[in-house]
C-alpha cells in the first residue's frame, strides 16, 4: 500500500516548544523583529526582505516538523533523525498524534 501525505498534516500544529528547538537563532531574531522591541537607536534595523525571510523560515520550521513524521517512517536511517529534537518527548507525542490523524483520514476515505 502506498502512502500519500496530503494537506491533512497541516491540521495539526507541532508544539511551540518543539518549534523553538529547531533553528533557535531564527526564533530569537523573530522575537527581536517584533514591533514592540524595535527602537530607533537599535543599530540593526529590519528590512522588508529580512522580515519576509524570517517569516518563511518560521513557517518552514513548522512544516519540517510536520513532514518529519512520515519521512522518518520512510527513511529511518537518515542521520538527521539522531538529532536530539527527534527523540524529544514532545516530538514523540507529536508523532503519535500525527499518525492517528493520518490514519483517521485514511479511514474516512
UniProtKB/TrEMBL annotation:
Residues 5-89 form the Ndc10 domain. Pfam families: NDC10_II. One of its GO terms (molecular function) is DNA binding. Transmembrane segments: none annotated. This is Ndc10 domain-containing protein. It comes from Absidia glauca.
Amino acid at each position: 500500500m502506498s502512502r500519500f501525505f496530503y494537506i491533512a498534516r497541516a491540521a495539526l500544529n507541532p508544539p511551540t516548544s518543539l518549534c523553538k528547538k529547531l533553528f533557535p537563532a531564527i526564533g530569537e531574531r523573530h522575537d527581536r523583529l517584533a514591533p514592540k522591541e524595535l527602537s530607533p537607536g537599535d543599530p540593526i534595523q529590519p528590512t522588508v526582505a529580512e522580515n519576509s525571510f524570517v517569516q518563511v523560515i518560521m513557517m518552514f520550521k513548522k512544516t519540517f516538523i510536520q513532514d518529519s513524521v512520515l519521512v522518518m517512517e520512510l527513511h529511518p536511517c537518515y542521520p538527521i533523525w539522531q538529532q536530539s529534537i527527534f527523540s524529544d518527548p514532545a516530538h514523540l507525542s507529536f508523532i503519535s498524534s500525527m499518525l492517528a490523524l493520518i490514519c483517521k483520514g485514511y479511514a474516512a476515505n
